[in-house]
Design goal:
16% strand; Rossmann fold; globular; EC 1.5.1.5; alpha/beta; binds NADPH dihydro-nicotinamide-adenine-dinucleotide phosphate; oxidoreductase; binds 5,10-Methenyltetrahydrofolate
């Protein structure tokens, strides 16, 4: 008889942290001249991005963060985008700036991110913040990786001494998660599209983090019994009835009977990403207004 994994309820943890942020913001508002402010810049009409941006703005409203988002048409030039970032860098009401990725092909995302003031870079993607993460210095951390660490902490999972394997090596997710798990004393392995025999690598993992973007790439036979499985992937797929649904990078239905802990999609890592964005914005607000 197989035992089912503990389901890591990211939605519940996210709601709990958002509740705490809301009280914190309410309290701080009494000694501050203004609420915290976040600006999400979106270019073009990618429907998935539009949905995330709406979700972020709704969550801001719930915790008392003001939104100064701007939506640009697809044909926006690099100069216009850079000018908008420069304006937000100077805008005292704004504590956090995020450029929603991916940008349309004609735009240079790296140049845009590098233009954000590091102290307002609530996505943690500016080279200064990535450098701080690398060196173990305090700074703004990328939201999804920080959200994964917060989930592990909430479930009493200490990475120390554990074998942690991350599949995917992007700057947004895979690499910063590896650095955070390393800082938490895990033994870290990274796999990617050039790793032969992925299953042999993932089967060693006590903590398996998957951030690839391939629906159900990881099957039950690739999971070590009792492992902690964190599925970062979000893929929109159409099932055999023609209905659209979200699925992760892990075959959840089979992996849950092998794993010790597992995150569902939706309701796992996604809600934590948004929550850590709000947390980073509040942190930046506190630092910028000297409210500590
Ligand atoms: N839950 C959340 O909050 C978030 C979810 N996401 C989701 O996470 C997923 C990953 O996002 P992101 O990191 O930005 O994606 P990227 O496309 O930037 O990176 C994907 C990584 O997966 C690797 N890869 C691709 N195919 C394979 C394969 N067959 N086997 C092993 N590795 C492979 C790539 O390897 P290589 O480097 O060799 O090309 C690359 O390192 C997506 O589904 C995205 O939607 C992203 C951000 C937040
Ligand atoms: N600069 C930048 N920073 C990002 O952090 C960033 C980005 N660009 N581009 C796209 C990815 C993706 N991403 C998600 C955010 C929230 C959910 C989320 O809330 N998901 C919910 C539900 C989603 C739904 O139902 O549609 C869930 O998984 O339960 C998912 C994915 C942030 N990203």
């Amino acid at each position: 008889m197989s035992k089912t994994a503990v389901i890591i309820d990211g939605k519940a943890v996210a709601e709990k942290i958002q509740g705490q942020l809301r009280s914190q913001v309410e309290e701080l508002a009494q000694k501050a001249s203004r609420p915290p402010g976040l600006a999400v810049l979106m270019v073009g009409d990618n429907p998935a991005s539009a949905a995330y941006v709406r979700n972020k703005e709704r969550s801001c409203g719930k915790v008392g963060i003001a939104s100064y988002g701007r939506h640009f048409p697809e044909q926006t030039s690099q100069e216009e985008l850079m000018q908008a970032i420069a304006d937000l860098n100077e805008d005292d009401r704004v504590d956090g700036i995020l450029v929603q990725l991916p940008l349309p092909k004609h735009l240079d995302a790296v140049a845009a991110i590098n233009h954000i003031h590091p102290d307002k870079d609530v996505d943690g993607l500016h080279p200064v913040n990535l450098g701080r993460l690398m060196r173990g210095e305090p700074g703004l951390c990328s939201c999804t990786p920080a959200g994964v660490m917060a989930l592990l902490r909430e479930y009493g999972i200490d990475p120390r001494g554990k074998q942690a394997t991350i599949v995917g090596r992007s700057i947004l997710v895979g690499k910063p998660i590896a650095l955070m798990l390393l800082a938490a004393d895990a033994t870290v392995t990274m796999a990617h599209s050039r790793s032969p025999d992925l299953g042999a690598i993932t089967r060693n993992a006590d903590i398996l983090v998957v951030a690839v973007g391939r629906p159900e790439l990881i099957t039950a036979d690739m999971v070590k019994p009792g492992a902690i499985v964190i599925d970062v992937g979000i893929n929109r797929v159409t099932d055999y009835e023609g209905k659209s649904r979200l699925t992760g990078d892990v075959n959840y239905d089979s992996a849950k009977d092998v794993a010790g802990f597992i995150t569902p999609v939706p309701g796992g890592v996604g809600p934590m990403t948004v929550t850590l964005l709000l947390q980073n914005t509040v942190e930046s607000y506190i630092r910028r207004l000297g409210l500590e």
